[in-house]
Amino acid sequence: MTEFSGRKGGPIQVTRPSLPPLEEVMPYLEEIWRTRQLTNSGPLHEQLEAALRDYLGVRHISLFANGTLALVAALRALKVSGEVITTPYSFVATANALLWNDVTPIFVDIDPVTLNLDPVQVEAAITSKTSAILPVHVYGHSADVSGLKDIADRYRLHLIFDAAHCFGVEDEGGSILRHGDMSILSFHATKIFNTFEGGAVVTSDADTKQRVDCIKNFGFANETKLVAAGINAKMNEFQAAIGLAQLPHIGAAKDARARIDALYRERLSAVVGVRCHERSKARAHNYSYFPIFVDSDYDLTRDELYLCLREHGIYSRRYFYPLIPEFSIYQSLVDSSDRGWPNAIQASERVLCLPLYPDLSEQDVIRISEIIKQYQRG
């Protein structure tokens, strides 16, 4: 038995949801059955908000049914309008949330190393219609928070971070979630911390937290006062129960992910034509993903390697492919001849995320690495 507790046969998925021991969930379920409060900021919801606030080291957090609704509500709470500058290199929910708020996404290129928004490109895209910047901390690696804040401050723009990948990530000053007007988390089943589905808005401002809480509850400030055209985006008590049971295990999950990350780097370090994505200089990582670059001096293209691994029962993912503006519904929003995102295009064509989850076995990491190694040129 290795220090990685492995799966027993079957295909290897790119991720596998972490679940707390069932016996640790049962007391929370018994509490739900006792109180009969299933939603509407019940006792478990309030416990989880307090527990996450303390764990993450943030001032205010508002729980949501999922991360996309959290982002939609955050944009609405800040009354974002017109155009918002964002990245083409993300999951489509980032830009979909803008369309749901009748806001036009303006896609600019990314840094070729970090794969995060390039502040130089952001500043060059600002117009009189720009109201906000929406960066993504890709793969849990921090965007240039100081550079983006400087731009946002000088042009009086809102700064909202899509931090779906960043649960537990810290820089030298503390939680990466403290930056900007708001940061948005996802607690989807694929994330390091999950509540099956779920999400949150993090902010340092109490009034902003109050507005967000109203918006996620149909717009009600109290039983008789409606202050906004809100939505129903509340996290229910069952989701909160799963989160409370998950939280004590996050440290062990991060440690397991760190060991897997290190083993991949060791086994792939000498493979010609394959590069591991550089870690950021964060004080605390969460090892959410393991992306590699498949370069032109490798014997297979990225897509050929993707298919090759599938033939071996290994399901990697091309995060993020296609780029958001390459989807048909977004092509009408951008000049089809523009494609002014050469770094994002290259990443989209070369990045492959390998399987990574706490109970992925050492033997499987080695097997995946050996399959990749055998196709190196020469």
Automatic annotation (TrEMBL):
<dbReference type="Pfam" id="PF01041">
    <property type="entry name" value="DegT_DnrJ_EryC1"/>
</dbReference>
<dbReference type="GO" id="GO:0008483">
    <property type="term" value="F:transaminase activity"/>
</dbReference>
<dbReference type="GO" id="GO:0000271">
    <property type="term" value="P:polysaccharide biosynthetic process"/>
</dbReference>
<feature type="modified residue" description="N6-(pyridoxal phosphate)lysine">
    <location>
        <position position="191"/>
    </location>
</feature>
<dbReference type="InterPro" id="IPR015421">
    <property type="entry name" value="PyrdxlP-dep_Trfase_major"/>
</dbReference>
<dbReference type="InterPro" id="IPR000653">
    <property type="entry name" value="DegT/StrS_aminotransferase"/>
</dbReference>
<feature type="active site" description="Proton acceptor">
    <location>
        <position position="191"/>
    </location>
</feature>
<keyword id="KW-0663">Pyridoxal phosphate</keyword>
<dbReference type="InterPro" id="IPR015424">
    <property type="entry name" value="PyrdxlP-dep_Trfase"/>
</dbReference>
<dbReference type="GO" id="GO:0030170">
    <property type="term" value="F:pyridoxal phosphate binding"/>
</dbReference>
<protein>
    <submittedName>
        <fullName>dTDP-4-amino-4,6-dideoxygalactose transaminase</fullName>
    </submittedName>
</protein>
<comment type="similarity">
    <text>Belongs to the DegT/DnrJ/EryC1 family.</text>
</comment>
